[in-house]
Amino acid sequence: MSHPFEQLPTTPRSEELLDKAFSRASRSGRAKRGTDAQQSMLLTAANIVSDNLQNVVGDWPDFDRLDPFYYELADAIVGADDLRQHLNELSWAANKTTEIRYEYEPRLSGDLETARKFRKQAFARIADVVEEIEDDLLAVADAREQLRNLPDIRPDDPTIVVAGSPNVGKSSFVNDVTRATNEEAAYPFTTTEIQIGHVEANHITYQIVDTPGLLDRPAEQRNPSESQAVSALEHAADAVLVVLDPSGDSGYPLETQLQLRADILERFDVPVVTVANKRDRFEGDAPAEADYSMSLETGENVQHVLDAVIEAVGYEPELPIDDER
Ligand SMILES: Nc1nc2c(ncn2[C@@H]2O[C@H](COP(=O)(O)OP(=O)(O)OP(=O)(O)O)[C@@H](O)[C@H]2O)c(=O)[nH]1
Ligand SMILES: [Mg+2]
Fold first, then answer.
1. Is residue 192 in contact with ligand 1, taking CB distance under 6 Å?
2. Atom of ligand 1 minimally distant from the CA of 168
């Protein structure tokens, strides 16, 4: 499985593209004589430039059809409008190159000296066009680089997002309940890594997403890209597990933790399960907001909490329709 940006091929730089086009052109010119050679050179150079540019554009997924999760992330990281604009410039250059070819082709059939002069002129104009999109090619290459390594969350698979203040035990929970094949992937714009674990129940694989640095502090402290990453997660989440630490060990007052939970309840439009962790480290009742208590240290109630979140997801797999009946 892969996400929509994983397979994007490399984007050439202007210089590379021109080198390739002109060296192939001179090779094809050497195979012919007279004005035929000049014609062949023009055709080859123009086709290489316009085909390569069209391929770059065509390899990008249509942003309007992207899953909202990926749209939000991509928009947060590279800016969908900017990227569209850069791709438009590449299309423009591809078309312009073809126009130049059509414009010069008829001029390459007279005497050889004139044909050579016009062919050189056409090459100079193609070079100008490709140099004009130098920045666009760089921007597209950069966008590809940033989007290639997006976390491989499958937005259509059932997804549990784990949230809570720092140090409350989010990662401990994800590591405890998921199999060892946790993937880590960095959001390009944060210093932290998102962790995706998988857990299987009733033959269904659930993704459990740990989001350090994103869902562990108040919304006002997020920068615009982070906010957008959070909205991407809102699209992907089927349930949220809010982990509280009433023990005081985390260094975050319970009040702060509950405020974060309130933010999440407000933003996420899916079931939210709240658990008081570190049961081994506090006396008395868990906060009233908690649906459960558990301890990742002793293992108490952990499986029960996992079952409850899976239940909250309420995922019903689409069964193949039985035509026989
Ligand atoms: N005693 C006790 N310690 C726990 C429990 N759960 C987690 N811890 C400890 O609490 C500390 C923080 O746990 P993490 O799982 O790293 O917490 P986190 O929420 O992922 O923290 P960040 O990634 O920094 O936001 C670690 O030292 C854990 O060993 C628990 O139930 N009891
Ligand atoms: Mg963590």
1. no
2. 19
CB 171 within 8 A of CB 195: yes
Q: Is 177 in the pocket of ligand 1 (CB under 6 A)?
A: no
State the pLDDT at residue 153.
79
Q: Which atom of ligand 1 is nearest to the CA of 174?
A: 15
Give dist(CA 160, CA 312) in Å, integer.
9
Across residues 48-63, what is the average pLDDT?
Answer: 96
DSSP at 167: T
Better-predicted residue by pLDDT, 102 or 190: 102
297 CB within 6 A, ligand 1: yes
Q: Tokens representing 136?
A: 């666009």
The answer, yes or no, to whether any atom of ligand 1 lies below 6 A from the CB of 68, is no
Question: What is the pLDDT, as a whole number, of residue 216?
Answer: 83
User: What is the residue with the minimal CA distance to atom 21 of ligand 1?
Assistant: 167
- Note the pTM of the prediction, 2 decimals: 0.77
Round to whole Å and give the CA distance between 81 and 70: 15
- Tokens 């649906």, residue? 291
Ligand nearest to C-alpha 277: 1
Judged on CB neighbours under 10 Å (0-12, 13-18, 19+), 189 is middle
Contacts of 6 (CB under 8 A, 6+ apart): 148, 150, 152
For residue range 168-218, list pLDDT tens digits in order.
Answer: 999 899 989 986 555 555 555 554 567 788 899 988 999 999 887 788 888
- Determine whether the shortest distance from the Cβ of 244 to ligand 1 is under 6 A: no
Domains belonging to the chain, first-starting first, are 14-148 (1.20.120.1190), 159-313 (3.40.50.300)
Helices (H), the chain: 14-30, 34-59, 68-78, 80-104, 112-132, 134-148, 170-177, 224-236, 254-267, 302-313
Tokens of 129: 């066009």
CA dihedral 164, 165, 167, 168 (to 10 degrees): -50
Assess whether the C-beta atom of 168 lies below 6 angstroms from ligand 1. yes
Query: For the segment 11-24, what is each residue's pLDDT rounded down to a tens digit?
Result: 999 999 999 999 99
